[in-house]
Write a structure and sequence with these properties.
Helix content is about 20%, strand content about 30%. It is built from 4 helices and 13 strands. The chain is globular, with a radius of gyration of 16 Å.
């Protein structure tokens, strides 16, 4: 199964720019054989609100903001792990939605550890028990956490009780501050869940400095592979219960794969 990580400059928004770049990235990833496309935390809107940016649109299941991504999943035949500010029952959340190849939302995670920072003080925390249930996608029991959720061992342990095969972790996590090197939290998360963790991070220096932020595959105490640098689509060929490849296939991105 080929995973594609959209390691893009998204934090600064605005959401219309992010939308267009993500849609191009999904199409390019599919053309290179991706089965799943993973996006970083708040990929649609970024954290434009933290820089005094223009108003942004939260994505409801049937909203115009989400519709092109549901259509892209159908058109390209991919599963999209779509990270965005969303609403469910009119409640705002920092979310990751799983969109299947029919364009249906088959799972979602609302970030549990919402921080009282300008970047997300608009969001309501997800219910702990409800948001620690894996979703089976293409036969892979897949757990979801978002960024700071991975720092707190109790969330990893709660997810681990369900024995996921893989954990998808969208983040906006620079390598400095925020409780120490993020790899330490990702290792703890993998140990607690007893599953590899696919970290979908981002780059850029608009809103927050993510120029050296790493996307990664982490398994137990091992950081199997990482990428930090300019915008790129990262491909990773993953099979449950098989040895993990030790590197990403890195395709530089300038609005298209280079």
């Amino acid at each position: 199964m080929r995973l594609a990580f959209l390691h893009f400059d998204l934090c600064g928004g605005p959401w219309e720019k992010n939308r267009d770049n993500l849609l191009r990235g999904i199409g390019a990833a599919a053309a290179q054989g991706a089965d799943w496309v993973l996006t970083p935390e708040m990929a649609l809107q970024g954290y434009h609100m933290a820089t005094g940016g223009a108003p942004y649109t939260l994505a409801a299941d049937d909203s115009e903001a989400l519709r092109p991504f549901r259509q892209a999943a159908r058109d390209y035949g991919v599963v999209i792990f779509f990270s965005c500010g969303s609403t469910e029952k009119d409640i705002p959340h920092n979310s990751c939605l799983i969109i299947d190849r029919a364009g249906d939302i088959i799972g979602r995670h609302h970030k549990i550890k919402v921080l009282a920072w300008p970047t997300e003080n608009w969001a309501v925390a997800g219910d702990t028990a409800e948001n620690l249930r894996p979703v089976t996608v293409d036969g892979v029991k897949t757990g979801l956490l978002i960024c700071a959720d991975a720092y707190f061992d109790e969330y990893g342990a709660g997810l681990g009780k369900h024995e996921p095969d893989l954990v998808v972790l969208p983040v906006a996590w620079p390598p400095h501050g925020c409780g120490g090197p993020p790899e330490n939290a990702w290792r703890r998360c993998s140990i607690a869940t007893r599953a590899p963790v696919a970290v979908a991070n981002q780059t850029g220096n608009s809103g927050m400095d993510c120029r050296e932020a790493e996307s990664a595959i982490v398994s137990g105490t091992d950081v199997v592979c990482t990428y930090a640098g300019p915008e790129a689509v990262l491909f990773y060929d993953y099979t449950v219960d098989s040895p993990l490849p030790e590197k990403f296939v890195v395709c530089p991105w300038e609005g298209e794969i280079k």
